[in-house]
Amino acid sequence: MEPKTLFDKIWDAHVVKQVKDGPDVLYIDRHFIHEVTSPVAFLGLKNRGMKVFRPQNTIATPDHNVPTLEQHLPIKEELSRLQVEALKQNCAANDIQMYGLDHKYHGIVHIIGPELGVTQPGMTIVCGDSHTSTHGAFGSIAFGIGTSEVEMVFASQCILQPKPKKMRISVDGILGKDVTAKDIALYVIAQISASGGTGHFVEFAGSAIRSLSMEGRMTLCNMSIECGARGGMIAPDETTFAYVNGREFAPKGEEWDQKLAQWKLLKSDDGAVFDAEFKFDAADIEPMITYGTNPGMGIGVSGSIPTGENLIGSDLITFNKSLEYMGLNPGDKIKGKKVDYVFIGSCTNGRIEDFRLFAQFVKGKQKAESVTAWIVPGSKLVEQQIREEGIVEVLEAAGFALRQPGCSACLAMNEDKIPEGKYAVSTSNRNFEGRQGPGARTMLASPLMVAAAAVTGVVSDPRDF
Amino acid sequence: MSIEKFQKLVSTVVPLPIENVDTDQIIPARFLKAVERKGFGDNLFRDWRYKKDGTPNPDFVMNQPHFSGRILVGGKNFGSGSSREHAAWAIYDAGFRVVVSSFFADIFKSNVLNCGLLPVQVSEEFLAGIFETVEADPTAQFEVDLESQTITNVKAGASVKFDINSYKKECLLNGYDDIDFLISIEKEIAAFEKA
Ligand code: SF4
Questions:
Q1: Averaged pLDDT, B152-178
Q2: Distance (Å) from the alpha carbon of B62 to chain A's nearest alpha carbon
Q3: ipTM reported for the complex, 2 dp
Q4: How far is CA B41 from each of CA B28, B89, B95, rounded to the nearest angstrom?
């Protein structure tokens, strides 16, 4: 048999039909929905006189719009409230399980899927949100879709998709001190650019990737789309199985044994061919931070902002526009730049491990007075764990307050907006103009980098402490 | 909701010679809070098109009356960023039927096709030619013909072919959508689930 990639194995097992000269009809195992990209799809379905085809494979949570304080009160912002209300009604009308604000499993869609064991190896998973790639950490094919595609999945549990090309990105070696999965992500994107992965589905491989926890793998796969890729995935291994085992919706007993045997076959065969390959050395990666307005504009914290001298034409115009927006000067050291806000949270870094790291760093230190900090757990379960592990006390002693779960400042659809012109060091995934609020200046980094900025009030290197 | 048929279009173009125009620029997240697919066109390129006080920014191309048309031409890597289909709807809703660039982000490309907009990917050179032509003469006409998969710079007489998946081409030419197709194979889907 011809050697196959992990991606091909899962994809091929889910093709219901191939359309002549067209895309594949791909069967979807799990469909996650949230309040922003689903209402129009529900409306389309209703206009066709239909109901959701397989409601039991669909899970809903309101996350993008929701406030992160006083969630027990009605949502103040009218349009947000309307969308959350619409989700509730649509789910009820279609028998879909929804984890609302008052549910113990509420949280960001890409956090709760894995933590409830809904996300499993070998699955196809979609959601009307580009960071669905997060679930690829479990060795599943997971990717974001548009609202028309959400409607397709509602109507048929399938979508039409052309098969993407395959790319392998290997990172081998041992990660340096204070270098996290987030730094690998920002490093890889800086190396291959924000469009370097376009048209491809990425498999991450290599010893440095294997060494990551599930939380770290999720962070990396989450960011895979920021290099333009359709999604990212990592072959499941003992780390994966141990994480899934025992979770609420994970297979149990005999079913577990059966699944486990299948999951163990989920890896790229020796000699499998990829359309593109990149190899990196873990030792070259230092704590990273972005200085520009796309996630590919990242540098090591000890580095300087590029001068753009090798750029020409529209690349140069784009570069200059970006630095002007950021209010940063070419050639300056990034370390020591003033920081006004810090944000830890989002589906990139809103898991328990991220808060542990942050707390470890700030323990016994104090938040800089000039800094406003938003500490937002990715889910109710994460919040609960933060409390149980005594992290809240550490945070509070250092001058930080914990908020309630939601997407929050990641895309600033709720009240958590960075004011115009202010600098935020953020664990989220996008630094586009206005992403964290109109005029907000975002620097993406790891929870440790965020912690270092939070206590110093400037961009700092966590290794200096 | 089937899509509007597309066969041929002759129009002037609206040039936007900026690279990496991402979906947050096309429609900022704060305008995604609708439960119906209506009115997104007004917020297309919101933060470039309007000043903070809500008045039109005269420097932005959509506010310059000598530029108009149903073809939007953007710089390289158009539509990167989020999967929000609202970006495609906003462009469609603002009256465009064709988007031209030398490179499109993947999700964006399938989103625009799904709402009945035609993405036309051309070479860097041809793109530069379009920008030059409109800069010299904003009334210059362009023809986009889906059947023959060509875009023609009428004035310059230059014509190039563009790629489109043949299934998507059929859909657009006939105004079908994917859901019509998927519903028609429901039995096969149910059989797949059992296998
Ligand atoms: S946290 Fe940010 S990236 Fe993740 S789902 Fe929410 S808005 Fe999207």
A1: 91
A2: 20
A3: 0.87
A4: 12, 7, 8
